[in-house]
Input
Amino acid sequence: MERPGKLSVAACCALLLAGAAIGRATGGPAGAAPGLVTIGEGPTKVATGFAIAPGRVVTVAHVLEGDATTVRGADGVARRGTVVRRDDALDLALLAVPGLRAAPSFSGPATRVLVRRDGAPAALPARVVRRITARVRIAGAAGSSRRSALELAAAPAAGDSGAPVLSGGRVAGVVFARSRERAGVAYAVDAGALARLLR
Output
């Protein structure tokens, strides 16, 4: 994991608040789902993310180029998102996005992948098929790494990497890929990895 230099007291407090929000999203009581955001600009650089607290967004690391990106929330306003923490082995990143609210979008007991379609949130049907140990190639690195992942029966589209998988009203995973060989199969980082993002 890449670690930034020393963090200020304010940054540490923000990380603690984000960590508490992740705990609630992954293991707390079922409730409203996290607000969705669009990451990046242009048709080839757009991904999805979700707000875990005001001004804090989780997305996949492989879509980020550098330490900053554009983030658009439900209000459509383009905001600058800055990488607070990034873990390429887990393919997760935490962004600071000043002014962004963590507005809820969906809730419910069914398993869904939450995405944005034409600027509006939508829930795709999904089913967790099994937990697997995924072998993942990291861009720019030799070889591959292994990590716990979920195999999903779901049909995300290009730009849905970073979308949260909700099950029983809790975040169960973060979509990072879809199968090239099998239609209707996608993969998500297991939500258990989210806590590691803040170590």
In short: The radius of gyration is 15 Å. The longest strand covers residues 127-137. The mean pLDDT is 78.
